[in-house]
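Researcher: Go.
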Amino acid sequence: FHRGYYIRARAVDHCVQDFLLKTQSHPRTQILSLGAGFDSLYFRLKDMGLLHHTVVYEVDFPNVACQKATLIKRIKELSALVGDIGGEGLGVITFSGEDYKLLGLDLSELSELERALEEAGMDNEIPTLFIAEVVLTYMENSRSDALIQWAAEHFSQACFLLYEQMHPEDPFGCVMQQHFSQLNSALHSLAQYPDCEAQQRRFFEKGWTECSVMDMNEFFTRCTPEDEQQRVQALEPFDEYEEWHLKCSHYFVLTASKGMESPWTPLLSNMTVPHCDGPVRMAGSITAVECATHSEISGLRRYGHHSVLIKPNVILTTGGFGEEDGQHCRMRNFHVLIKHAGYWKAGCVKKENPDTRWDERLYHTVSCLSSSLALVVGGRTSPSSAGLGMLWLKFPETSNASDPGDITVELVSLQPPAEPAALRWRHSTTEVIFKGEKYLFLYGGRSAMEPVLGDWYFLHTQELSCTVIPVEGPVPESRHSHSACSWKGGVLIAGGLGAVEQPLGSVFFLRELEHGFQWQTVETHPPLIPRYSHTAHVHDGKLLLVGGVWFHSSSVPGITVIDLMTGLCLDYAINVEHLEWPLMLHNHSSVFLPNEKELLLIGGGGNCFSFGTHLNPEPVSLSLSNILTSH
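Model: Structure:
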């Protein structure tokens, strides 16, 4: 929430101050804030000494304008800044200061708006900035279009600043739309103007000659100075990268102008940060179907958890944040999915020693070391607390379980020599083989002290001690929320979120040599679209990347298949027409069943800004046989 509202205010301030700077040689300028609500923009600009020759007009419904006028009069700091010169009660003018006019009327009544602004002293021959900050979308399109056109036609030197929602059809967009529908304030612009390109066309068609538009990920990356980005990123403990980037990909800032002495381009930046433009080319699609699960529990509605195949057709899911006993909380119970007679059964797992601390962790890893033993590494409770250490999970040897109630898990606390290495989360632990011995390769992640880590450890699976094994080659840049898969005795690392909270598109193979390991870059063509918070599997020389978050706001990641022999990289969309709910593929887990070529997606989702929390309600099955045989 804090970052989401910060970036909105930052974008508006950036563009307004750019307008004031570019027009400072003019003897008079003006700003018209449409649907201004209780915005404090005028008072901030005035306090900063930026309104030397600028008059600010604000328009909103009469009841809002009256309430705001009352507030200003009541607060002496505000009334001192505005310098009240009377004029209230003159028609629609609810407050009048020397350089501040507050008008109460309906924006959609254009003739009334024009008459009231003229009465308040607005001049349509001087440079004028129109601000519409999440306002026009609440109006019928015909009325908001007419307003945009009226501003272009009636003012000889005009600039327009628009901040609004977009991308209504993807999973986050569906949750966003549903939220506003439930509030009985539908977002009208979205159907006709769903993306940046449509909004830009809209302004050109309505008489504006220059128009730039970008989503808020691009604005933060390209129009916010690096030191300011770092200041914001360090303000408070933060671990909601997915939610932040998804929120930013569903809002845009647009600037348009006409008749200005020189084009108004506050969104042009000198920063050469690459950004994803244009649609993603899809090689095909894979249909998602809801798993036939027979269960009465909601325990698989969660995110930040980990799922692992502990026996054939038995999947254990631990940790994360989700829904338990009708409440949203960090998950205490373990859950299993068991495939029996063609369908999946879900249920809770009995803990043999419930007193052993699980610590209700998120973003941990679970590695199966045998059919009866798994190792939990790291994870966190709060992002401001230190990471958690290691735990053994022990299961009975029997493998003929057909009912969730048959599975029991024993938790064993341990403080191995390698414990300090485990105090992290959003990392990976992957089995590698060196000189015939098994090791767990612990890589990357983040900690309470370090927002991103690039170190690694080899944990000997018997003693759980760190073994020094030489590693040569180009070291990958630090990352968390990446994927890691065992392959040919080494490990494949793909994607992740890097040091400046930017998704990475690199793929590395840590390959076994006679005397140690070597990092090798895996070249992909076309280049892999940078992403993080995805899952991954290797099958028959192909690396499968599942879901995640990327900055291509025109689509969401589906399945990417990388041929490890040729480097060919193909993206496949996930067809969700058989699902009755949005499928959010970040912070999920996935299990690949190689014999059936079936991919099971478990959990996923998260907070959707102020629109509510969405957790995928059921596991989802994808059959990959077509793409794995045809690739």
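Model: The longest helix spans residues 2-22.
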